[in-house]
Amino acid sequence: MSKSLPPLREVIAAHGLSASKALGQNFLLDEQLLDRIAAIPGDLADRAVLEIGPGPGGLTRALLRAEARVTAIERDARCIPALADLQEAFPGKLRVVENDALAIDHAELMGEPFAVVANLPYNIGTLLFTRWLAVPDWPPAWTSLTLMFQQEVARRVVAAPGSSEFGRLAVLAQWRSRAKLAMKVHRSAFTPPPKVMSAIVHVTPAEAPQGVRIATLERVTEAAFGQRRKMLRQSLKGVDGALAALDELGMDSTRRAETLTVDEFVALARALDQRMSQVTSR
Ligand SMILES: C[S@@+](CC[C@H](N)C(=O)[O-])C[C@H]1O[C@@H](n2cnc3c(N)ncnc32)[C@H](O)[C@@H]1O
Fold first, then answer.
1. Within 6 Å (CB) of ligand 1, which residues are found?
2. How much is the pTM?
3. Nearest CA to ligand 1 atom 12
4. CB–CB of 66/37 below 8 Å?
5. Which residues are annotated as a binding site for S-adenosyl-L-methionine?
6. ipTM for this model
7. Is the pLDDT assigned to residue 1 strictly greater than 60?
8. Per UniProt, where does S-adenosyl-L-methionine bind (predicted)?
9. What pLDDT is recorded for position 4?
10. Where are the domains of the chain?
11. Which residue, by CA, sits nearest to atom 13 of ligand 1?
């Protein structure tokens, strides 16, 4: 049983946690909202959870109340004493790692399958996300990603083909995962409020298509969306074998990148990989 905790505003005042813009600090203080966020990944009782950027520990508390075993990586040394109070309130349930989340191998740190739940610092959010999605082994060590992004980024993650938001991030997030928009969060929920609205995406691993290397998929999407208004026959010119692969698949090379489905990108990358292996085995 945990002892009662002081309101988050008091924690912030007591530890002098004035929000740092450079560290992307926009804190969530509404404990009901935080409990709803912690419920998005489903039952967390006794599950290992990785939180990036606990700050004063609002989301961390909610995860601990949901009976998760939490590992939290925080870069700001000022937050560590506030988190120590949480460790005392939930003995043995919270491990705090003071470090840069980008400098750590998360799978190695956790040593067991884990869910990621985080109100990410906006300046490194996309980089962390793409790193989790691009791991070579699949299924990955993480069992789900529940992540707060700026709403515009969240929409790009879940975007459907044919929309202007559909691009590399959507293909990367959807080719071997399921990604959905779980909750919109108004800017006024944060202290201080950011300029834009936020939203939480929930991503779970799905079966990976066979015979496709992620490096090839990334190369194709980078080229195709790098010149998204151009026809594929133009934008994919620089990718060796891509025009022949389009032909082989019967795909119209006058189409533009955003009209292709995720499956079509996968098929294109697979055809390229097959051509490559034919060339190298000759
Ligand atoms: C948007 S705030 C979220 C704080 C808290 N989880 C909440 O919801 O109120 C982002 C947090 O990430 C931390 N942070 C920023 N860059 C980081 C990094 N590279 N590694 C780990 N934590 C980082 C910040 O210090 C801050 O506490």
1. 23-28, 52-55, 58-59, 73-76, 79, 100-102, 119, 121, 124
2. 0.95
3. 53
4. no
5. 26, 28, 53, 74, 100, 119
6. 0.99
7. no
8. 26, 28, 53, 74, 100, 119
9. 83
10. 2-205, 214-281
11. 53
